Amino acid sequence: MLLRRHILSLAALTCALGAPAVQAQGAYPSKPIRMIVPFPPGGGTDILARLVSSKLTEVNKWTVVADNKPGAGGTIGITEAVKAAPTGYDLVMGQKDNLVIGPWLYKNLPWDPTKDLTAVAHVAYTPVVIATSASSRFKTLADVVAAAKAAPGTITYGSPGNGTSIHLAGDLFEKAAGVKLSHVPYKGSNPALMDALAGNVDLLVSSLPSAMGQIKAGKLHPLAVTSAKRSSSLPDVPTVAESGFKGFDVSTWYGVFAPAGTPAAVVKTLNTEVNKLLAMAEVKAAINAQGAEPQAMTPEQFSTLLKTEYQQWKGIVEASGAKIE
């Protein structure tokens, strides 16, 4: 009898101790989720982050709020995400620029993307576009090359920032064409776009999502896209390779990340729900309208992509000579 009472007491104590843990986990999500956007409003990262956030809110009745934290090529926003609690309530829309390239450019970053972040859901990929204002004297990429060869260093191009994949796409184009352009870095895509439209820079090198609105409005004239194949959003615009530079292929990608240590169950839930959105016709259309291509992946596939490109771009950054103090 005494033994039985002891066992029952022990069982009751175990349940009591276990209850707070079960209660603490609860259903996810049970409060608003913050989606950090490491660039200013209006750029490609911002557009896709707000699309995903609004659709998760609409479809699942969650509350997902985009929060812009721009600066330092996107690394400021990433740093904030890395430092956040790994609970699934602080996410970040990362991309190739700040996760694959930034770490090789910025000295003493307090994080390693392959160790301090968890890949949650790949969202889309897109080529880079080389464009001019509609009133520009440059109508083809050949026009730009001819002018740059005639007056080296006088043709300017704006990018969303030093060391971004878009800046490096411009640098790779210079090398491929054997010309010298003058790079003008901005703090995000939108400021670069505005100056290109105003004619303050000769060229804009940009992600398609950032430039598509002005291309559709007829205010921005696309000269070429940097992917191996033409963009389905701009089927009449040639690739850089088609413009005489064979083998040229540069694209960028966007995806949702969480701090390392985020519970696997939370990552799975987020991945499943984002992938459901990417399968919806209206979401596909919205992403395509921005010049991007939706692409779903498992967390494992996305993590592999990150790790592979992280190593590949180390050599590209070193060869470019790009440095940020």
Automatic annotation (TrEMBL):
<dbReference type="InterPro" id="IPR005064">
    <property type="entry name" value="BUG"/>
</dbReference>
<keyword id="KW-0732">Signal</keyword>
<protein>
    <recommendedName>
        <fullName>Tripartite tricarboxylate transporter substrate binding protein</fullName>
    </recommendedName>
</protein>
<dbReference type="InterPro" id="IPR042100">
    <property type="entry name" value="Bug_dom1"/>
</dbReference>
<dbReference type="Pfam" id="PF03401">
    <property type="entry name" value="TctC"/>
</dbReference>
<feature type="signal peptide">
    <location>
        <begin position="1"/>
        <end position="24"/>
    </location>
</feature>
<comment type="similarity">
    <text>Belongs to the UPF0065 (bug) family.</text>
</comment>
